[in-house]
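User: What would this chain look like folded?
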Amino acid sequence: MEREHDLKDDLPRSLITPKTRIRVSSVLNRDITTYGKQHLIDQSHETCWNSDQGSPQYIIIDFQRKVKLQELLIMFQGGFAGKKCHILGANHNDGYQYELITSIFPEDINTLQISFNVLL
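Assistant: Here's the prediction, encoded as structure tokens.
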């Protein structure tokens, strides 16, 4: 008997906790119920965060603790992918002075992508 595939089965352990704070640059038509930041981490293929038009757009994730980011998994809906994205990091003790970690060039496809991967 086949079981229904769950996106959660494919994901490594998340660094997101209830204390994690997420900010986004904008929400399409200010419709936070349909397109809000909560959809960035709800692990559903049926929902998404959607920004208003224009550049730049951003997502800020504050883990409220020191973390070691090993990989970033993203998914864009076809036709709505960022062309060039930057991953920045900051330390609470340094007054949130953001530094470039890497730039990524996501594909414009509706599938889970590894956009940032640190080989240990």
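Confidence is low (pLDDT under 50) at residues 1-6. If you want, I can go into more detail on any region.
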